Predict the 3D structure of the following.
Amino acid sequence: MDTRFMLLTSPPPPTNTHHFLHSPTPPSSLSLLSTTHHKKTPSMLQSSGTRINSTNTKSTWNFLDLKSEQQPEALDIDLPWYNPSDRPRFDVIVVGAGPAGIRLAEQVSLYGIKVCCVDPDPLSVWPNNYGAWVDEFDNLGLDDCFDKTWPMACVYVDEGRTKYLDRPYGRVGRNKLKRNLLEKCVSNGVRFCKSKVWKIDQQEFESTVFCDNGVELKGSLVVDASGFSSTFTEFDHRIKKKNEGFQIAHGILAEVDGHPFDLDKMVLMDWRDTHLGNEPYMRVNNSKIPTFLYAMPFDSNLIFLEETSLVSRPVLSYIEIKKRMVARLRHLGIRVKRILEDEKCLIPMGGPLPQIPQNVMAIGGTSGVVHPSTGYMVARTMALAPIVAFAISECLGSNRMIRGKPLHHKVWNSLWTSERRLNREFYTFGMETLLKLDLNGSRSFFDAFFDLKPHYWKGFLSSKLTPMELAQLSLSLFGHASNRSRFDIVTKCPIPLAKMIGNVALESI
């Protein structure tokens, strides 16, 4: 939900190292990944999710005692660097070389527009990994950018109910994706500046970007792709409290003795809580603010595991997340031998959109494109970047020179059309609903959600439904829901529902 819910920033905030997935894969983990297969070993010949018997002492199950083996890594690509004597000004300056920034730079430069991308380390490997539905990347021509794919996903609702989702899921190869986009940028003439932006001076027709190494760049349009922690994108000053929800997770790519999961299925959500049977304090807290396991089994001895709080307000304690994960892995009989990668994920969800329009354009985390109900963002940003790039080309491409307010209006409205704003209100209502559900309520919700026709749950997770389809989804979901879920929606969510209806009415005017 890269879950899973994934990060799309560059550079990411200090607390972020994914969601959904993570940092540089060391040679040892790459060699393990290269041997991935679907053949089951004897340790896997058991029902999925069944605890593995072990004679190890309790202390051997605390993987928190292990240190991650991941090391800093950089891509070996010959980038064209910015030279002041070469090109004093650009049409577009992109701040940030994360997935959002590089994707937009690549797309804008297709139109012959002069682009410069500024980042403290443009060649560094992204610290976050990402997961995505395979069909979404296929539709974008990025199907060769996966490290691993699974033909199906599954959701453990509880001990007795499991949903099988007939939709392939993949772990995005961050090295493959970044190399793909960077090489296209190089071919299209994008320049790169290795520096950190500390100030943007905005004028009506031209902006100046000040870098910490003394470089000053001038451009017709500045795009902020620097992530959630950015201070360059403005929000309505009248909004005193953003009222966001937060997704937090702890993940590890681990070498293990064995695990109980099927190799041909990734685990999108595991809501089971029997691992907390001997932890009454944690079990009570988990029943109020639940977490689930997200898992990608590469083979019988290599697996990515992530304990995730889908959304909470205020954010759930990171220590609590790790304690629950220790208890879960111990119950499942998963003994971690080595941690090849680890990551901490913190994603703001929902909250207000940036002020639209404004002189600085935004893309990625700071632009509001994170799915408020799930945290998904990477695939959506990959899909939206060409739309924004086309709008930019209509103003700055060829011999056109539409700048200032007309340019800002056009690019912002290409990202946030009235329909997308309406849809976001619905997704935000979904987030507010999830915030009010306890463990049993969450189980009932997703049990009903994945009983919907695939068109609806796939479209919802991929942000592809029209407002009318979202209304139909709501009616269908209410019809499929248990009596408990209907009661929760009616009694716990009247204020979020009223707020959504009011905001939709304002957007429709």
Observations:
- The two ends are 33 Å apart (CA to CA).
- The longest strand covers residues 336-349.
- The chain has a mean pLDDT of 85.
- Residues 366 and 453 are 32 Å apart (CA to CA).
